[in-house]
Amino acid sequence: MSRVHTVLGPIAAEELGLVAVHEHIGYGMPGSELDTQWWKTPEQRYGETVPKLRQFAEYSRGYGGATFVDATGICNGRDVDYYQSLSAKTGVHIVAATGFVGGDTALRFFAEASVDYLMRQFVHEITVGIGNTGGKAGIIKVGVSRGFRMKELDLRIYRAAARAALLTGVPIFTHLAVDVEPALAVFAEEGLPLDRVLFGHADDGVSQGKVNEEAILGGGGRIGFDTFGYDLELPDPPFWGRHRRERLEHFLRLIGEGHLDQVLASADANCSPLGWPGVEGHTVNYIYEQLIPDLRQEGIDEATIHRVFVTNPAEFLTLTTN
Amino acid sequence: MLKDPTAPHHPQARGGPLQRGHAHTVLGPVPADSLGVVAVHEALLSVVPGAEHGYDISMDRADIFEVLAAKLRAFKAAGGGTVVDSTGMFHGRDVPLLENLSRATGVHVVASTGMGPEENLGGYFLTPQTNPPTPWPAEKFADLFGREVTEGMVVPRVERRGAAGLVATTGTRGGLTPTDESLFRGAARAAVATGVPVSIRYGADAVAELELVLAEGLPADRVVVGDLDRAGAVAAGWPAAVAERGAYVAIDHVGRNDDDAFVRDADRAALVAELVAAGHAHRVLLSGNAVGVAKGHAPYELPYAHALTAFAPLLAARGVGDADIQQILVANPRDLLAVR
């Protein structure tokens, strides 16, 4: 049986349709909820979010479904009952994550927790549910703290995530693919096959030259080109932006080198950001409005597009049975 | 038209001359001389940041209310008037809960803004989404804390409520980190701007850290220095030094007799008697650092009235007069909490 956890319950992987594998309904650093400059009324939040998801569903009709994987970790404004209402009303499947964007987004309670406690937290959110929502996490988020160096807390979270992934069968995706060697060592020690790990943000502007693609790909890991749309051509690009052409060529190069089965793509957009201004006009629909047309223009065929956005993520998200 | 959720909730929350002589409670300003016996350094609901998301942590609101209400009623029955929840804005503070507890029990509750030490902060303040991720400076903390007085305390992403009555921060035990220093300076600036007092639980050096907040132009009698019954503070003579500098001395672990980091009650009583004899009765505050409900850390079951019921008699036995005891339990917190 091929199952994927969405916030409204398990669905067959065949029902996922087109998958945006690294997105955010709304992301805010822990503590940003105290700063009223970012607050929005519920009307505003739904108003900014629902049309984007409905458009995403509409664009995805031909793929048999639309799936939005939310990469917002614990303490970052993850809001599962809100996701459930959005999913129910728009028809977009939403996969929620357990885990943390990085050690520096884990609040003190978790920063001081043992590997075993963190593992139990992740397993609980995958097998029982997140908070009182009943919604189960379908993926585990881990990541590298600011500074491009893996910290002790980051690695503690990676190890707990590896153990929880092995026990429950959900995959792991990472915030940043830099300083990957310690992560690869943890996964090897824990016995987690690397095709269960998506090393994300390998395409962002500030990570270039710091990602050991050979080690990731050679080990069978998956590589995320998941900041598509954070282009330096924007009027006010974020610091992690990159020239559009350069990112696209990087992506095409990996496909050309035979790594099609190991690449995934997404836009990492916020429907309605929670603790930062976001990037005006950048939405999950960049995938349809810019990226897929760009790929077609480069001569990428529909089978390849299907592989990147449908088959690869379906294989990745499907719960493994051990 | 629905209201702007960031707008001030209580008209009284706005600063101004009407508040002079009044303390900000969660139900609005009250004349400071009606606060009665005040426990200045206590916690009502205390949640280690993030613990509310812990899979094994129950946040049953009805249970929490019931436990806290019973403790506040016991405090009142023992002669208590006001509990100051000095946990700041990011350690479980739930303003509507505090309001309803105050309404239900008749105990005045003063809530605090502020944060600290650094390890209790969220990444928003420490590694913001800027390049490089520069931690927040003092002026930004001053603005964040000050608005919790002038515009009202936040219910995160929902609304502002009444005014904070105190800015509370704590230093890292090993010594202030640069962000701790920003928190201390920011707290002092917010107090200067709004007229509420500041509480600092010192990190490593009570006197130097007091000087840090005084350097922001805050009068010494607007500051309470907490944790002065730590063994190191007593050995260093900091309680008297803080009093001489004109700030309030909080002997605020009254009832704790099983922790070598602190002196015992007998020593606390001797210390208070010495301070009174040295003419500092108007600078001493007593409290227990009781925790009403603890989430994510060990419970600490101490009645809020402990200083009043169990410790005050020890002072009397050491010759501290009734007038001085009343000064310490009633008049000093009244003067501290009255907004200037």
TrEMBL record, chain A:
Annotated residues for binding of Zn(2+) 1: 22, 24, 141, 268
Any GO MF annotation of the entry: hydrolase activity
Pfam families referenced in this protein's UniProt entry, alphabetically: PTE
Swiss-Prot/TrEMBL keywords: Hydrolase, Metal-binding
InterPro entries: Metal_Hydrolase, Phosphotriesterase
Keyword DNA damage found: no
Highest taxon of source: Bacteria
Cofactor(s) in the UniProt record: a divalent metal cation
Note describing how the cofactor binds: Binds 2 divalent metal cations per subunit.
Residues reported to bind Zn(2+) 2: 141, 175, 201
Residues with the N6-carboxylysine modification: 141
Keyword Acetylation found: no
Family designation: Belongs to the metallo-dependent hydrolases superfamily. Phosphotriesterase family.
Protein name: Phosphotriesterase-related protein
The organism's taxonomic lineage, starting at the top: Bacteria, Bacillati, Actinomycetota, Actinomycetes, Geodermatophilales
TrEMBL record, chain B:
InterPro entries in the cross-refs: Metal_Hydrolase, Phosphotriesterase
Domain of life: Bacteria
Protein name per Swiss-Prot or TrEMBL: Phosphotriesterase-related protein
Keywords for this protein: Hydrolase, Metal-binding
Any one GO molecular-function label of the UniProt entry: hydrolase activity
Family affiliation: Belongs to the metallo-dependent hydrolases superfamily. Phosphotriesterase family.
Ranges for region Disordered: 1-26
Classification lineage: Bacteria, Bacillati, Actinomycetota, Actinomycetes, Geodermatophilales
